[in-house]
């Protein structure tokens, strides 16, 4: 096995940062193309929306065990296999007209994203130590959030000029480029391989699920990210089919809402020293207040400006809650941070995919008022979980 050479450490680090946003790119780049996919493939909206949900489910499930596998079999080999299969799967997605083949490829892409992201997350722990490690891990979090921000913006232009297939050709090309550069400049960074023991994993997962604060934290992460994915599932259809705007406009809207998510994350870091539960509850109350205002405003204004303005503010609160709880859950078990991070991400994305798709399927949002209804369901669920946390703490 080729090990990472010291002289290539910097460029290998840049390549690791380039792989990290892959999950966000794979989920968000084709959002402006979803209405066109439904038309060209002769499928109802729900079938196209399902391509996003099944990706998230497979991505979430993979994170349950990916950490242990890359600890046992190495980071480099897993990354290279993932990138190679990415190329193949994206090309197949772009060239088929069969929705079930697309479903199969999206499941595979979710699995590959889980392995690739976990492997590269471990890369920074292997290569760097102390403050330098903290520095690169903090940058990694920001880089991860860049994918969902820029992807729909790029996807809107690709859709307008080349059609929905171009999104997946671009992803295939990006994966191939990374594969070739990794082959030349990167290498294995794992110094000591751990045995892969199912019994150990079960013991760790059992301990984590029994920790109620950790358990509720994972649920809150899932509910927070569900707000983002809920809009992603229905937003492009509303903007393009109901409001009559172009794919490029839908891409700009996703770009704006991506910045809302990042803003919430930065606010979470800025207020990191504030009392934890009070600031989360305040964010939830502000969130519900904004949703109620969105309800009221829907009877007076139902256009793209009011829709995006309210969605932006609501997504800021969702990003704030997610950032705080995700950081809390990862740090909750410092001796098993990799497993805790994988479990948190896995549960959060499974909850996200199930709840966001379920709400869209039931409500079938077509106008601003119905989008507000979906947000309201998620906000009330968050309030319920936070009330449970408060109740339990009152009885400890």
UniProtKB/TrEMBL annotation:
Sample GO molecular function, one term: sodium:proton antiporter activity
One GO CC annotation: plasma membrane
Transmembrane segments: 50-70, 82-101, 107-124, 136-155, 167-185, 214-239, 251-272, 284-301, 307-326, 338-363, 375-391
One GO BP: xenobiotic detoxification by transmembrane export across the plasma membrane
Chief subcellular location: membrane
PROSITE patterns (alphabetical): MFS
Keyword Transmembrane in annotation: yes
Highest taxon, organism lineage: Bacteria
Topology in the lipid bilayer: Multi-pass membrane protein
Keyword Cytoplasm on entry: no
Cellular compartment(s): Membrane
InterPro entries recorded: MFS, MFS_dom, MFS_trans_sf
Keywords: Membrane, Transmembrane, Transmembrane helix, Transport
Sequence ranges assigned to domain Major facilitator superfamily (MFS) profile in this UniProt record: 12-396
Protein name in the entry: Multidrug resistance protein
Source organism of this protein record: Chryseobacterium taeanense
Origin organism lineage: Bacteria, Pseudomonadati, Bacteroidota, Flavobacteriia, Flavobacteriales
